[in-house]
Amino acid sequence: MFKSLKKVAMTLSLVALITVPSLAEDDACLSTTDISAKQVQKALAPLLGGAKVVKVSESPIDGLYEVVIEARGKKIPIYVDCELKYLVSGEIIDIKARKSITRERARELAKETIEENAKVLAKVLGKDKVEKLKKIAPDFVAKAKIVKIENKPKPNLILGNPSAKTKIILIEDPQCPACAMLHEEILKLLEKRKDIAFEVYLFPLEFHKYAEGISENIVCTKSLKEKQKILHESFEAALKNDKRKLKSLSKPCADAKPSIEKSIEFGKNVKISGTPTIIFPHNVMISGAMKAETLEKIIDILK
């Protein structure tokens, strides 16, 4: 999967000091202007990866400034000194009140993100649907986005009833553990819902050694039932890290390459941030696994 916010935070926690060119003397301390945010972005670029600096403001401690960074739809606070010589990634604790100011701030930012994205989603889904989604899955509202789908290729396989009225798009890597966890939840859902089906687009990631061969094996297999079986066995092996089984399922097939290339191109066109990615009705997209109960509720609201 792609680099997560957790990994970014871990990287930051290991590096307590960075040295960068100091600001001009008149600009020794940061302001909340866009220019300051750009200066901080430039200074922290070696540590942030794909994260973005969205806001700079004063912190509860004199001489430190709060920097809000955003990665994969989530915002977290970190701290820098006014000359951009030091970075602090950790919690500010109010000793007297016995509370973490950083955690409270993170919760505030999470609520802000939900409300900001809710307004965007409401333009397409309507306010009522978004309010229902906020009650059952606030994280979904915070991270989901509307995508534009053009030239959707034929799926590599179907999970569930091919004649089901409601079709959900699923982009996944057959060697991806998170995809495997979602797969188990999807099977639970499909046991009781015959009106829902998942159109699977295979997106083998380069760092998964057997994913491409397994994907080609699935595409070249004629029977839908056998395609489903290969995918299921692959996910079982991925969860167990059973490399021997994964290797046995990896059967390169040149005839499958055009189909898989189209699936990969499709995933890139909708700008997935990782696997698994789900695209619900109204082209509402989100990456990551979720429980069958939540998945079902979201589908019923959106379909």
- How many domains would you count in the coordinates? 3
* Overall mean confidence score, pLDDT: 87
CATH superfamily placement of the largest domain: Glutaredoxin
User: Which CATH class of the largest domain applies here?
Assistant: Alpha Beta
- Number of E-type strands: 12
Brief sketch in words of this structure:
By secondary structure, the chain is an alpha+beta fold. The chain is built from 11 helices and 12 strands.
Commentary on this structure:
This protein has three domains: 5-90, no CATH class; 95-143, no CATH class; 144-302, Glutaredoxin. 46% of the residues lie in helices and 19% in strands. The protein contains eleven helices and twelve strands. It starts with a helix and ends with a helix. Residues 1-28 have low confidence and may be disordered.
Helix-strand layout with pairing:
Elements: H1 5-14, H2 34-48, E1 52-58, E2 64-71, E3 74-81, E4 87-88, E5 93-94, E6 99-100, H3 101-125, H4 127-136, H5 138-143, E7 145-146, E8 157-160, E9 166-172, H6 177-192, E10 196-202, H7 211-220, H8 224-240, H9 243-249, H10 257-269, E11 277-280, E12 284-287, H11 292-302
Parallel strand pairs: 9-10
Antiparallel strand pairs: 1-2, 2-3, 3-4, 5-6, 7-12, 8-10, 9-11, 11-12
Helix pairs in contact: 3-4, 4-11, 6-8, 6-11, 7-8, 8-9
What are the salient characteristics of this protein?
single chain, 303 residues, alpha+beta, Glutaredoxin, 3 domains, six-stranded mixed beta sheet, four-stranded antiparallel beta sheet, 11 helices, 19% strand, disordered N terminus
